[in-house]
Design brief:
With 265 residues, this protein is of the alpha/beta class. It is built from 12 helices and 8 strands.
Length: 265
């Protein structure tokens, strides 16, 4: 499935001078609305919509509020990243992809570990769909390290498993991936400049959020993630848990702009 041009700030574009690096950073930042309900989501959007164009709706908010939670985001002109990490038999995933596409999501996730048949069914479900969303194959969750991966019965190194799953997804016709920023450079190298790489596990150089447990294992700063080849960065708690989310978002945008500028040099 071809990548919609307006969806993918091409990796190569980060290598050439941009007229407004902060504006480009805004187009690449996805804020995760990992909040308990729609009221909290809208409150966060009100505080952040001048800082970013994209918002992620994940399992917590989607289960609490249902599909209707996407409507006010779309009505306000925001792009929606629907992060449900679909993983089921091929027929079920294909149906879920068709349903999610009808909701107006511009990107959506499914687990690459579902296998080639599931991935091909998901891609096939979007054939003939006007302005289809970008499918993203989730490789290895950023909360997992070597110990966690080994506990699932996978003896491969994390980076090796990420590459195996991403290559499998690419062979199934999916050219969007979710991986940690630590594997982004390797995935970019074989997936090419047109692939869409979305990286969670982003932690700013100066994290101003209150002290809290953090389940992310494979992390990087915003600038490093972009230098490693990420197309988009997903940032949640460093923004949404900050005393001033808008201020935290602006600081992250500045770090992103610095990373983009490094590619322009």
């Amino acid at each position: 499935m071809p990548v919609p041009e307006r969806l993918n700030p091409a990796f190569s574009s980060a290598r050439s001078p941009a007229p407004d690096l902060l504006e480009e950073a805004r187009n690449r930042l996805i804020v995760a609305l990992d909040v308990p309900g729609p009221a909290e989501a809208i409150e966060m959007v009100n505080r952040l919509e001048s800082s970013c164009r994209w918002f992620k709706v994940g399992l917590e908010l989607f289960v609490a509020a249902g599909p209707a939670v996407l409507e006010p985001l779309a009505e306000r002109g925001h792009s929606i990243f629907l992060d449900l990490k679909l993983h089921d038999i091929p027929n079920t995933v294909a149906g879920a992809v068709r349903s999610a596409a009808a909701l107006g999501a511009r990107m959506m996730t499914l687990h690459a570990a579902g296998g080639p048949a599931m991935l091909e069914a998901a891609r096939g479900a979007l054939e003939g769909v006007a302005n289809p969303p970008q499918l993203l194959a989730v490789t290895v969750l950023t909360s997992m390290d070597a110990v966690q991966l080994a506990a699932t019965g996978c003896s491969a190194p994390v980076a090796g498993q990420v590459e195996l799953l991403a290559r499998m997804a690419l062979a199934a016709g999916i050219d969007g991936f979710v991986c940690s920023p630590q594997e982004a450079a390797a995935v970019r190298a074989f997936a090419g400049p047109g692939a869409v790489l979305v990286t969670p596990g982003i932690r700013p150089a100066k994290d101003q959020t209150p002290s809290r447990p953090d389940d992310q294992k494979r992390i990087a700063t915003p600038g490093d993630a972009l230098r490693n080849g990420a197309s988009y960065l997903v940032v949640g708690r460093p923004i949404t848990n900050a005393p001033n989310p808008a201020h935290a978002a602006e600081n992250i945008l500045k770090e992103m702009a610095a990373g983009l500028e490094a590619w322009a040099c």
